[in-house]
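Quick start: read one record
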Amino acid sequence: MRNFKNVTILLLARGLGTGLAPKAPGTFGSLLGPVLVLGLFWLQLSLPVYLVVSLLIFLLGVYLCEQGSRLLGKDDPGEIVIDEIGAFTIVMLPVFHRPLSADFLWVSLFAFLWFRLFDIWKPWPVRYFDRIHGGWGIMADDYVAAIYAAICLYVTLILLGWF
């Protein structure tokens, strides 16, 4: 059924259309993650407020994934990418305290690569959460993959001397 609510749910769940990429929609959707984080960093939120925003994005994502899956008639449609986008709020935690600079592009590239690796590979417990049905499972596996990616991003930046 086409109505404003359903169209809005699918627009947001599909990452403003990035999830409609014919190949690798999760990768294309992930490209919006650093953009979201850049906006949040620009707001200069305190860490507790940033974490609350990340939680709210997670909860909104659960709703969007649940409703989007229902509207599309699939358990975990590849075109739903809000999970990849929201997970970047966790991936970029190691650089939360750093001022925005030209390095943000390089850091985002490393974050993107680490996140995609863990999102695709799905080591334990990412694979466990991937098996949970509905919006909770769709969001949870990406946030767990984001924790792995954040740890690897932190180590990478230490090894490159950025900390």
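The mean pLDDT is 95.
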